[in-house]
Amino acid sequence: MGVTILSLSDTVGTSTPESISYLFSNLIPKYPNIEFGAHLHTTPSAWHEKVDAAYKAGCRRFDGAIQGFGGCPMAKDELTGNMPTEKMLSYFTSQKAKTNIRTMSFESAHNTASDLFNNYH
After folding, report:
1. How far apart are the first and last CA of the chain?
2. Is the alpha carbon torsion for 86, 107, 77, 39 positive or negative?
3. How many Å apart are CA 55 and CA 41, to the nearest integer?
4. Based on the number of CB atoms within 10 Å of its own CB, is 15 exposed (0-12), middle (13-18) or buried (19 or more)?
5. Contacts of 94 (CB under 8 A, 6+ apart)
6. What pLDDT shows up at residue 119?
7. Of 33, 21, 121, 105, nearest in space to 70 by CA
8. What is the mean pLDDT of the chain?
9. What pLDDT score does 96 carry?
10. Where are the domains of the chain?
11. Domain 4-120 superfamily per CATH
12. What whole-number distance in Å separates Cα of residue 32 and Cα of residue 1?
């Protein structure tokens, strides 16, 4: 039997580092045939603590969006959005984690997205 992939989501951005750590540190060892991922929404000031909690609890698959665009209209404030991919990549680099991201390709996508976002947002 193969590995099942399952993303755990906080689409309104209310999770805490403690709840994230508790969730992943309990689920990952208990269900070794499931690859758990994190789909976290955040405010600009809380991204690091959320990624750090999930990573240190054993999560190795993360969802993100360039510049954090998108999010849930039911979030409690307008600053809550998707986890910024570029911030996560910076974190993973600091942890010396293997990401399999082609840096130049991501930079090109980021620059194109930035141009589009500047024109329409």
Report:
1. 46
2. negative
3. 15
4. buried
5. none
6. 84
7. 121
8. 90
9. 96
10. 4-120
11. Aldolase class I (3.20.20.70)
12. 12
pTM of the model: 0.87
**Residue 66 to residue 83: CA distance in whole angstroms:** 8
Q: String of b and e for 27-57 (b: at least 16 CB within 10 Å)?
A: bbeeeeeebbbbebbbbeebbeebbbbbbeb
Name, in order, each residue with C-beta under 8 angstroms of 40's C-beta and a sequence gap of 6 or more: 9, 10, 13, 15, 20, 50, 51, 54, 62, 63, 83
Report the distance separating Cα 81 and Cα 73, nearest Å.
9
Q: Which residue has the tokens 């840096």?
A: 103
DSSP symbols for 43-111? -TTTHHHHHHHHHHTT--EE--BGGG----TTSSSTT-EEPBHHHHHHHHHHTT------HHHHHHHHH
